[in-house]
Amino acid sequence: MSLERFLNQAVSSWMSAEGPDSDIVLSSRIRLARNIEQFKFPFAFSNEEANQVIQTIKSRMQEHRFTKVGEMDLLIMEDLQPLQKRVLVEKHLISPNLAEGSHGACLLSENEEVSIMLNEEDHIRIQVLFPGFQIKEALEMANEIDDWIEDYVDYAYDETVGYLTSCPTNVGTGLRASVMMHLPGLVLTHQINRIIPAINQLGLVVRGIYGEGSEALGNIFQVSNQMTLGKSEIEIVEDLISVVSQIVSQERNSREALRKTSGIQLENRVWRSFGVLAHSRIIESKEAASCLSDVRFGIDMGYIENISRNILTELMIVTQPGFLQQYSGGPLRPDERDIRRAALIRERIKMEN
């Protein structure tokens, strides 16, 4: 796959495919942090060592292809324009840290479910992104990729604490498991303000759509583990599954409560948002995210038929500033982005209808 296809192809596998509980859980992600024993950690290594890390993993890929993933493309961050890197971040294929660094690279699978980031905060960040609630399946795939790499390199590992990482919060398993959820019911019933502190007390953290420091646009939240030390990978994932299952149940209950107590008001809200998306000539990103959330909610509640909920997930990504500019062929001023965003949404909804 060429770089252009990664950038121009709006729909990744995790956006278009259905998975368990897809009406609420958009995606499941596993990320494993690893370092190669013979090299200094990224915050202290030289340009030469950074290149050696990339060449080491590139050689492994060329000599012994991991057949379950298939062909993978190597993208060198230095070779990409800022806008190109921003699109990859918006598609959740690379992290903001990798995009901002000067020594990074990334191996991407053709279906975009697997991303191996090199020289981010650690030498290796293995990411697996699956649609719906498939966190165990994502862990299994990530562990297989991890074993495939470890057959070729020696990881920085301590028998007492586990895998050694640049950030102390990742020492141990090096595992970050996260689930992206659409929770309009809990937001509209104001239960989310009670649930988030309770989740934090259980050793998990709730963040926005693009992780740490990002806003929960469109009622989309990421729930992930905080601790990686003192528990096994399975225990961390089981804890996350338990909490997410409860959130899914509470979201479904809140949706039914809204249907009974605010049915016509809710339906009116949904269709008003649909009208804004279908007819606006100018729309800002926050308003677009809010309306897209309402319409997806309306599809899940049965108010809107014959439109796939997946197009809303797609539009939440492609209406971001980087993708809009890539789609338009160059830089756009904020007001131009608002015009292009509105046009793109109208076109996509018309295609679906």
Principal-axes geometry comes out as globular
Beta-strand content estimate: 15-25%
Strand order, sheet with most strands: 2-3-4-5-1-8-10-9
Q: What is the N-to-C order of secondary-structure elements (H for helix, E for strand)?
A: HHEHEHHEEEHEEEHHEEHHHHH
Number of helices: 13
Which secondary-structure class do the elements indicate? alpha+beta
CATH architecture identity of the domain at 1-13 and 31-172 = 2-Layer Sandwich
CATH class of the domain at 1-13 and 31-172: Alpha Beta
Write the layout of secondary structure elements.
Layout: H1 3-8, H2 13-16, E1 25-34, H3 47-63, E2 72-76, H4 82-90, H5 96-100, E3 105-109, E4 114-118, E5 124-131, H6 135-150, E6 157-158, E7 162-163, E8 175-182, H7 184-188, H8 192-201, E9 204-207, E10 220-225, H9 233-279, H10 285-301, H11 310-318, H12 321-328, H13 334-352
Antiparallel strand pairs: 1-5, 1-8, 2-3, 3-4, 4-5, 6-7, 8-10, 9-10
Explained architecture:
- The mean pLDDT is 89.
- The chain is globular, with a radius of gyration of 21 Å.
- It has an eight-stranded antiparallel beta sheet with strand order 2-3-4-5-1-8-10-9. The chain has a two-stranded antiparallel sheet with strand order 6-7.
- With 353 residues, the chain is an alpha+beta fold.
- Among the domains are: 155 residues, Glutamine synthetase/guanido kinase, catalytic domain (Creatine Kinase, Chain A, domain 2), CATH 3.30.590; 91 residues, no CATH class.
- The two termini are 30 Å apart.
- It has 13 helices and ten strands.
- One of its GO terms (cellular component) is extracellular space.
- It catalyses: L-arginyl-[protein] + ATP = N(omega)-phospho-L-arginyl-[protein] + ADP + H(+).
- This is Protein-arginine kinase.
